Amino acid sequence: MQFKLKQLAPLLTCSFLISQSAFAQKFTLTSQDIQHNKFMDSKHEFNGFGCTGDDQSAHLKWENPPKGTKSFAITVYDPDAPTGSGWWHWQVVNIPLTINEIQTNSGKKESGLMPANSQTIRNDYGVFGFGGACPPSGHGVHHYQFTVHALSVEKIELPIDASGALTGYMIHANSIESSTIETFYSRE
Fold it and tell me: What is the pLDDT of residues 129-149, one digit of tens each?
């Protein structure tokens, strides 16, 4: 069987594209403090509402943002909170493209560790910053989704008093890709 170059070119192009996508690196999120599908320790528990933890946000590091990324957002969300709408523990938008890591305990406003020009949204505890896990006693295991979103815009315009729902909407409307570490916590 004899192939002509014209017949072989589409096959070679298709093979090249398939092999390129196989080698594309995935947008990943890692942490020195938390692990996917593992329980968090008490340093990430809220201090208040009957909880006595250290209320520290986790170290987060992300790699291989997708093409077109112009900024990042971080969210920490508990879908199991008995509110009917979950619980926002932390939302930060407008993290510059040059940043790919947030240190442990950066979520405290007074730490001064968040990137310049980033905007922290008031969490469901009513605080501008991170608020740790504090599921009701005896409510069972709660899931905590630590997510970094790669955004297609440099800046999301939000009012200072933006709700968690509005912030979530704007993040998702501009998200190219996200990566999540889901952890667990419970109080008996």
Answer: 999 999 999 999 999 999 999
Q: Which of 100, 91, 89, 22 is nearest to 60 (CA)?
A: 100
Distance of CA 125 to the CA centre of its chain: 19
Q: Kindly state the helix (H) or strand (E) to which residue 179 belongs, with its residue range.
A: strand 175-185
Res. 3: pLDDT tops 80: no
pTM above 0.85, yes or no: yes
What is the set of domains in the chain, with CATH numbers? 41-185 (3.90.280.10)
φ, ψ of residue 14 to 5 degrees: the values are -60, -45
Longest dimension (CA), the chain: 78
Q: For the CA atoms of the chain, what is the radius of gyration?
A: 20
Indicate if the pLDDT at residue 8 is higher than 80.
Answer: no
Among 123, 72, 111, 110, CA closest to 93 = 72
What is the C-alpha to C-alpha distance for residues 30 and 10, in angstroms, rounded to an integer?
Answer: 39
Dump pLDDT digits (tens) for 48-57: 999 999 999 9
Extract the runs of DSSP E, i.e. beta strands, from 18-79.
28-30, 47-48, 51-52, 60-63, 71-78
